[in-house]
TrEMBL record:
Residues 275-290 have a biased composition (Low complexity). It comes from Tigriopus californicus (Marine copepod). S-adenosyl-L-methionine binds at residues 122-125, 143, 189. Residues 262-312 are annotated as: Disordered. This is tRNA (adenine(58)-N(1))-methyltransferase catalytic subunit TRMT61A. GO terms for molecular function: tRNA (adenine(58)-N1)-methyltransferase activity. It comes from the Eukaryota.
Amino acid sequence: MSLAEYGERIRENDRVILYISFRQIYPLFVTPEKCTKSGQKVEHVFQTTYGALRVSDLIGQRFGTKVKLTRGYAYVLHPTPELWSKALPHRTQILYATDIATILLQLEIRPGSVVIESGTGSGSLSHSFIRSLWPSGHLHTFDYHESRVKAAQQEFQEHQVGPAVSVRHRDVCAEGFDLVDVADAVFLDLPHPWEAVPHAVQALKPTGGRLCSFSPCMEQVQKTCQVLRKCGFQEVTTLECLLREFQVRKISMLEFDPTRVSKTEADSSANTKATTEGTTEVTTEVTTGVKRPLESDSEDLESKPVTTTNGSAKATIPERSFVTGVPLLNMPGHTGYLTFATWPAQIKLEDGPFVTDNDAV
Ligand SMILES: C[S@@+](CC[C@H](N)C(=O)[O-])C[C@H]1O[C@@H](n2cnc3c(N)ncnc32)[C@H](O)[C@@H]1O
């Protein structure tokens, strides 16, 4: 099992995702025994709100199997970066699939890419980077919080992606990345990303690359954009990814049926009269009880009619119910702004300094 590849059956020491419901997703390490706080080894039994699971029973099962708990059941899934983001132990705020998908696309991450990331945080984005650049690329990820560095290192080993990632303990704003001309892409999730931008210039390949900075506040975005332009980045663009949730609802609406309008068309000239303001006013009279043959048996046609009065017009209009998606009026969704920029290819003139493509033309 590796988070970057797919395995068929569960083996000892694999990471699996126990899926009970959309909101109950647990990461589980498949070890037959576990240590208690006092250091004693006991059988590994995982407790859920639907009862217990003996973890050793998972060994040999196919990923995706429905497994019995003592008071219910769960699915044991192969870990993916998306599931890991939903289940991981939070050490910091993290990025989720919507932003991550945009980041991977815009940074053009592909097998073989070399990526620099700071900070590592809880490693949510790191796992997606690793899967995209796997197997020949490399992720250099930095955090100035030592225990987060150690926790991330351990998780990468447990998830068998260790060779594709280096985790370093470093303040990247003060000390830079200690990498020169190696990166295809740089990603910043820092409180002061503009301080790391000049270091990103050093680290990006002279053949060009992409940078992304994630910031919750517009003031951070503005400062970062100013520094990006000053340092020579091009195509500076800021995006916000918002999830738009629709709830499935049965709603009723008055049915519009032109066959119910009897006199309107036939007597339109008779019903049109000049008003005192010189404009024309149309009165309509609507007959009731006319059903189109195809609709007469429809279950959705509500029997209770609505009677409306509009000037001289009177109508009895049935209501029609149908299932549709209704957007929520208030939707929480802001995570942050994603600022992307392109580091243009630098051309080395003979014995001269690097200049950009544009300068050379
Ligand atoms: C919000 S978290 C990153 C979360 C990460 N993107 C994820 O999806 O799990 C920000 C991290 O940046 C680290 N950090 C802040 N300033 C830093 C700096 N100057 N150098 C290195 N790391 C820094 C913090 O310790 C923190 O762990």
